[in-house]
Amino acid sequence: MYGLACRGSEGGARSILTEPFDAEEFRKHAHRMVDFIADYHRDIETFPVRSQVEPGYLKKLLPESAPDEPEALEDILNDVQSKIVPGITHWQSPNFFGYYPSNDSTAGFLGDMLSGGFGIVGFSWIASPAATELEMIVLDWLGKLLQLPNEFLSSGKGGGVIQGTASEAVLVVMLAARKRAVEKLTKDQGISEFEALGKLVAYTSDQAHSCVNKASQIAGISLENLRLIPTDASTNYSISPEILAKTVAADVRGGLVPFFLCGVVGSTSSAAVDPLSELGDICKEYGMWFHVDAAYAGNACICPEYRPHLNGVEKADSLNMNPHKWLLTNFDCSTLWVKDPTLLVAALSTNPVFLRNKQSDNNLVVDYKDWQIPLGRRFRSLKLWMVMRMYGSTGLRAYIRNHCNIAKHFEELLRTDSRFEIMAPRSFSLICFRLRPRANDPDKGYSLNAKLVEALNSDGNILITHTVLGGLYTIRLAIGGVHTKLQHVDAAWEVIKSQASNLLNE
Amino acid sequence: MYGLACRGSEGGARSILTEPFDAEEFRKHAHRMVDFIADYHRDIETFPVRSQVEPGYLKKLLPESAPDEPEALEDILNDVQSKIVPGITHWQSPNFFGYYPSNDSTAGFLGDMLSGGFGIVGFSWIASPAATELEMIVLDWLGKLLQLPNEFLSSGKGGGVIQGTASEAVLVVMLAARKRAVEKLTKDQGISEFEALGKLVAYTSDQAHSCVNKASQIAGISLENLRLIPTDASTNYSISPEILAKTVAADVRGGLVPFFLCGVVGSTSSAAVDPLSELGDICKEYGMWFHVDAAYAGNACICPEYRPHLNGVEKADSLNMNPHKWLLTNFDCSTLWVKDPTLLVAALSTNPVFLRNKQSDNNLVVDYKDWQIPLGRRFRSLKLWMVMRMYGSTGLRAYIRNHCNIAKHFEELLRTDSRFEIMAPRSFSLICFRLRPRANDPDKGYSLNAKLVEALNSDGNILITHTVLGGLYTIRLAIGGVHTKLQHVDAAWEVIKSQASNLLNE
After folding, report:
1. Do A67 and B332 touch (CB under 8 A)?
2. Does residue B257 lie within any of the structural domains?
3. GO CC terms on record (chains A, B) (predicted)?
4. Does B343 fall in a domain?
5. What is the residue range of A25's domain?
6. Stretch (H or E) spanning A143
7. Which one of A70, A106, A364 has the shortest CB-CB distance to B55?
8. What distance in Å separates residue B311's CA from the closest CA in chain A?
9. How many domains, in total, are found in chain A?
């Protein structure tokens, strides 16, 4: 169809595609790709976890321009194996303990395939009704697993939506909060919207994810008007309601207008949990939008024993958590629930003539385009639906508990070796620790531990990352990979001990 | 692993998954899904193009909560077939002529599979070097196919990046432009950043995509300060440089500060093309950021005969086009090139301690997290790479030309029937037309043509959408589906003529 002579006809992945999408050519080639990916996962432990390449490595290996003529899949897969795989840091490796996990799974992958196969763009209900309706339903399902109040569900005037990432979730609710606050201020005080914007103050913990900072930059909230409330070990790095209340009161006395608080359930550095209920009371007192970012730890809250960490969420306006982190749903899938979606729509709606339709004009349907930054959107609810069905809530809870149990086991191992210390209490599957510094270490163990992390990552057996807690360099071991089992954490402990011995003997 | 007894062991897709990601279980189930998707595409013409369901249909068919216990893929696929497919509007159908196309392809799908299989999150170079480096390389490849000036490529201080959608591309460049303009104003005039923000004015055509409006809302540019320059048939709905220049000059005289212009190559309503070179001169005169949105028509510009539509792009600061529309790259893939990425980074960078690393700290690498709204990002360059390799630039050009030829053929058919009129000249693969209104039609053919569109979409043979041009209801027939061939457009013409006859005989 695309005007080329058919050059290969031996069939299979060695042939050249003769059509951009012929069902039988697709079938053959996609089967080949399934096997390639299955083999990759089967062999994943054979690769160094962190890529060992140097900056610019790939430019030397690939041509400077696209080829004129079509190439066969098998030739491309050879390049993938020899040129791409060495540049990959293997997030799906059972020995990847960096950042927070990002879960691939069989069910999530199947759902993504199906989404790609349908190839719809579900900006409005009319553009593919099933995409909007399934998303509403599965967000209700997941909201119920989290025991969210009915106000967050479609049965209670609220609703859920899938965003790409927590960054986008936080941004859209901040924009909704900004809109509400600016409108109130311009009306109450008769000032311009820019004067109003200049008065708005947002709050979050100094442990919050950098996406709150980024959302503020994008929303035009001056960084001077973003308060990162300092935390320390005395509250296990969670926000102190007293300090927050004092800060807010001082801002109000200074003529500023508190409009947004992002509370954290499971901070990026140490999985700290803010006291939601107390924060909610402060937000209510000042009329602030209360958002809860539970990107990582929210996943654990599908288990009744972890659900208390979400207590107080009933006082929030919105909540996000990322099933792509730790609930077996391939990236990207960040779920956001809001109590009043009309505020999102007010901040984000556009209604161009080329998208108008009877169902939207008559308010019979939800159009998710108005709940998000982009217009277009994939059919991402399919993967979340398949994950919930193929594992069942029993299976999902068992998955979370298994990782938390392994983390507890690692914590116990750490306690057996007095060279190490734990830097923050463990609540979920993240352990923060470090090598105790030598006496009179001028940088308090910073470079010692930085060297340990670099040594571990360089030899490729495991990947871990770091943070800083209370000014001290801290090693993070985040457990939650789809292939990670007890044996991998035991092996990680052995290499950590061994590298520590090497360093301490230097 | 996740704690369940293995309930099914007959193998294949009827069994229950015993692990969240076992390579062999994955292999079996993914092969089954490949066949499901191949069959869907094989049979795609058997479905009504536009879903025929009513709002709320799916809630009646699915349970209210997630299942406790795992279910088998085959049961889920039965539900997909019986409950989801009826709610799908089949964007990949050869008879889908609505909006603009959104191309699935074999190569694009394979690339997406591979991206999902690796499951990396490439926010920084270090997080998977191959993801960043391949993206830089394939954006250079595509930039060369578009004959972009070297300043837009990595070899010339510029560079490309994959965004999810054109909405995000336009937003990030507007944020970069805002940052630059606000800093200049606060410095030059000694005013606050909020006063500065209140002076900024953005410009685009009234034919521009609604995403420019949305980006302005998000960036805090008052809608009063977004000028939608009126266009009409006299310029084929492209911006008149004279009107733009006058509008800008009047704003400057009024104490406002022009900071951003979005020119359009291929408008959403009629694929109008703005005169880039003249617009670029105006932007230069006033120090405005000049962005070019070529989401749809930019794809055609890989063919030398369409490239003149991009003439003047050398005067732009940035350009986006969407390979997911018409270049066989599965959604989402919107490519953005900028001449000076440091301005993007200045507007969007955050540098939290938990992401710091040697390569980034030493400026040895690009970290795409600072070129986009989200932090996390998929390995989307794989699909664009596979598309360029598996079809070759020869194949991609043939693909575009084929659709444009079919569109020319449809235009000729239209001209044979005097009941119809063409509403705007055809430059690419979009045809804008309508039924001529009856004499003395009080609404000038609006309801007549709206009825025609509804009749066509309701019977399910084809899907088309509408717009309004110069106040007149206009039918859009956009050709560019991966399965669309000449015979489908011939058949569409027959049903259009037939429905028109029905309506006119009423």
Report:
1. no
2. no
3. cytoplasm
4. no
5. 12-90
6. helix A129-145
7. A364
8. 21
9. 2
